[in-house]
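Example (one chain per record):
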Amino acid sequence: MAVKFLSEEWANEMTEKLNSSDEFKSAAGTQQVKLQQVVTDAPDGGETKYYFTLDGGQAQVGIGEVSDADATLTQTYETAAAITKSELNAQQAFMQGKLKISGNMMKLMQLQNVFNAMPKAAEGVEVEY
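Predicted structure:
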């Protein structure tokens, strides 16, 4: 059954899939990060916030705000959906000005293997956009 993008169910499915992927856990290693995501122009006309944390090889995706984020990534709903569907690379989105980043850029650069492992780990999540 498909879960609605940026819903609690979506966040729970993403967390479960990431943490059950050996490839993702290997890429995550001992990395630690707290990322805040801000999605503007959501279908309801508002803004949605979700977060991604990584601690001791365990990922968590949640709806809402995370305290002490290492970086905040802001993008439109259209861009967020395209990145999640692997139709748009996050680096390309950043270069095109579609993804705004504030905070610790070095930390994000160190996490490239983690970000690269995410799409494959999340393959089984059926998402309704």
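Caption: The CA atoms of residues 83 and 89 lie 6 Å apart.
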